[in-house]
Write a structure and sequence with these properties.
alpha+beta, Lipocalin, 2 domains, two-stranded antiparallel ribbon, 10 strands, elongated
Length: 254
């Protein structure tokens, strides 16, 4: 009986050792698994970061190949070309406010000191700039005649000599100018005459007629600054009485 008791004791001890070994082995396996999972996650994150860095590098190279971003003047010129092609959606007696929601207002409300456009563009500093008619400002261009008189292409020069902006009527600036043109290209003979007119903020247009009706051949000049800046304009020469167009030139500020 004592022998059986010893045998049973050894058996229980052996089972306890085996059980402890299994538990220890299980603990080691869980720790190893956790470490392996942690390593996997780190490697996966590193791989993801490397992949993102590669993508960012490729995008940077593509952006560099695209060149510099267009400046404000270039964007304004492109927008002006689109407007010239599509039209403003307003009749001649109104001007477009621009923006996402088209809106037409009277040009008499432009630059009057009050926001009449919902977006306030009618009082924008660029719209109300006096630069186009500053004293001494000169525009030149090669004029081509299509009607009224026979004339070879010649240089036309417009120089602003004075301006006045009445406080009670600020939508226009009244100007004085000298218009010169070559009569003979070979001899460089030039004729000049004094002109009067006004700058229309709303339409971005300079309109001039001879100060003396006997000068200038009865022709007036209308320059539309429709190219997104104050440095160039599309100009037309026409009869003052009938407004029939006779010639045209592209004017640039010098």
């Amino acid at each position: 009986e004592q022998q059986q008791h010893l045998t049973m004791k050894y058996v229980l001890l052996a089972l306890a050792v085996v059980a402890g070994t299994l538990q220890l082995s299980h603990a080691f396996s869980r720790e190893a698994a956790k470490e392996m999972l942690h390593d996997y996650r780190i490697k996966n994150q590193n791989f993801h970061i490397d992949s993102l860095e590669t993508i960012v590098t490729e995008l940077e190279e593509e952006l560099e190949n695209l060149g510099d971003a267009p400046d404000h003047d270039t964007i304004a010129a492109l927008k002006a070309r689109i407007r010239n092609l599509e039209g403003t959606g307003c009749d001649e007696d109104h001007v477009q406010c621009g923006g996402d929601v088209p809106e037409c207002i009277s040009p008499l409300f432009v630059c009057d000191g009050q926001d009449d456009c919902k977006n306030g563009r009618d009082e924008d500093d660029d719209v109300c700039s006096m630069d186009p008619v500053a004293v001494g400002t000169t525009y030149t261009g090669i004029t081509s005649w299509s009607d009224c008189v026979l004339h070879d292409p010649h240089m036309t020069v417009i120089t602003i000599t004075a301006f006045e902006r009445p406080p009670a009527y600020t939508a226009r600036v009244y100007v004085r100018a000298v218009i010169s043109f070559e009569v003979d290209e070979d001899s460089h003979l030039v004729q000049s005459y004094s002109a009067k007119g006004y700058w229309d903020f709303g339409h971005h247009r300079l309109n001039l007629i001879p100060q003396d009706s006997t000068q200038g051949g009865g022709h007036g000049v209308s320059c539309h600054f429709n190219l997104g800046n104050h440095n160039e304009a599309d100009c037309k020469i026409g009869l003052v009485t009938s407004k029939h167009q006779c010639a045209a030139f592209h004017a640039k500020k010098v």
